[in-house]
Design a protein that fits this description.
The protein is an alpha+beta fold and 276 residues long. A hairpin with a 3-residue loop joins strand 9 and strand 10. Strands 1, 2, 3, 4, 5, 6, 7, 8, 9 and 10 form a 10-stranded antiparallel sheet that branches. The N terminus is likely disordered.
Amino acid sequence: MALKAVKGLCFIELWRLLSIGVTMKRLKYLPLILILLSFMCCLILSLSDINLGDVHQIAEYGSHGISGGDPPPGGGHCSNVGVDFADNPFHGWPVNYRKGNWSTISSWFCDPNYFVGYTHWGIDIARLTFDESIYGVEAIVTAEDVLVVRATQNGRYNGGMGNNVQVEALTCELIKCNAEDQQDCKEWCLLHPGSCEEICTGTGWFAYYFHLKDVVVETGDQLEYGDIVGHVDSTGESTGDHLHYQLQGPEIGAFDPAPSMADDYDDSLRGTWQGR
């Protein structure tokens, strides 16, 4: 409500100053009037009890979910920008929309242009142009085998995540297989249904999908590369339809997803922005 009041005061003052300019037939002073208006708005903000972080939150919360729910994952280090970790099991574009098109990125990992007071620990993929939409597009698994650790669709704010999914990459091994290596095992087991067993263990590498419209998996589900986890929306703390995709590794925390999303990644691409 405080933010609306600030906007209202600025609008009223603009109307008053413009009326004065027209009445006095001094339109040549219009630039000066606009400068004075900007100064007054800044003064109002500085004297109010609103800080920039609060303004961001007020603007973002809207009707994207009631308070409470899951806590967000921890952060990482911005020194991880552009680092391609060899053990990272997640590879590929996490949404079925313009795969490999870096111009769909609206916010990068540790983006310096992100909201004041916030560090962006993931990467945001949004629509490319105003005449397109990413709403309802499938968000997909980017590792060979994963376990769904969390699947939340409760209409809550969830620490800004909205409806969200967390998966852990697995290392799986086929046993009771009459073959020399795992690749041969896969073929042998397909030819002999019921003869093999698969043992999977967690790796400590996680992927997160935020702001989903819906969640089509359940906690405990085991998924494979390309499986759908949900559909893109703007739930939680979000300014518009997009997928926030975040990766975390053991003893690393959050790290840059971009190097593992497409083979042509280069740090110079961080100057690429949505639609440009």
